[in-house]
Amino acid sequence: MLPKRFDQARPFATLGVILLVWLLLPLVLKTFARATFFAIQAPLIVADSYVQDLQTFWSNRLHSKDELLKAGKDLAGLISQYEFSVQQNKALDAEISRLENLLKLPSMPAFRYEPARVARRDFSGWWQRLIIRKGENYGLPVGAPVVFAGGVVGRVVEVHRYTAVVDLITSPTFRVAATVSGDNKPISYQGGLNDAFSSPRGTVEFVPLDISASKAAPRRLVTSGLGGIFPPGLAIGDITLLEPSTDGLFKTGEVALDPRLGSLTEVTVLVPLNPEQL
Predict the structure, then answer these.
(1) In angstroms, rounded to a whole number, what is the distance separating the alpha carbons of residues 178 and 225?
(2) How far apart (Å, rounded) are the C-alpha atoms in residues 203 and 201?
């Protein structure tokens, strides 16, 4: 009877020994083991991403010519709008440079824009992450901001040879200095505990008492530029609820984030031209 119970408990004992050995390992060995495991796993993640792209390509081949012509016309219209936006941005950049020289202000952070394909999404209750198909081979640094058309996506937290890990703005480990659009008072934004199938949300703290927001009258939350990592004015989300904090000195609340964050296929990494910005 005793040997039978021992055989039943053997897997748990083995697991306990493995966990104990892992806890006793030095931090350097843990970091090396984790990086090695990720390096072995990365080619499979990237290969799976390319297979999905190939499936999408062949599924698009099944569309009729009329559908493709309509899509081409819509795309041509978007390209025309983007070309006009590029011209406006160049004019605004020139005006900013002129004012900086006139007022003798320090230059705003300069970035190189590096588009990247999303290879994998890793969502759980404790972290929200993306793996993108670019890394050291494209000069991506740890801490670089990641954005998309709707605003902030997150921040690069790990860089490997051909991939990088992005901590999403929805993750509880993500923090950034923010402001309400049209107001310059600093606010602290942090990601929250987001379920896999719920609308993405975050939280705000240290909101001044004179600022109010609700679902009926939300307030736009943008990056403040403090800290030198994210440039100012990037959209974060909409504040939909504000309540007095426990100390009564500030307000805390909820932020509704862009629902597209959970289905992104392309992002852009802002690589600082001056590495000291990170």
Answers:
(1) 8
(2) 7
User: 261: part of which helix (H) or strand (E)?
Assistant: none
Kindly report, residue by residue over 48-60, the tens digit of the pLDDT. 777 777 777 777 7
**223-257 per-position pLDDT tens digit:** 998 877 888 889 999 999 999 988 888 999 999 99
Q: Which numeric CATH code is attached to 112-272?
A: 2.40.10.350
SS (H, E, C) 96-135: HHHHHHHHCCCCCCCEEEEEEEEEEEEECCCCEEEEECCC
Q: Which helix (H) or strand (E) holds 138?
A: none
Tally of helices (H runs) and strands (E runs) in the chain: 3, 12
Q: Is 167 helix (H, G, I), strand (E, B) or coil?
A: strand
First to last CA, the chain: 62
> What are the structural domain ranges in the chain?
2-60, 65-107, 112-272
CB-based burial, 93-110: b 16+ in 10 Å, e otherwise: eeeeeeeeeeeeeeeebe
**Entry pTM:** 0.74
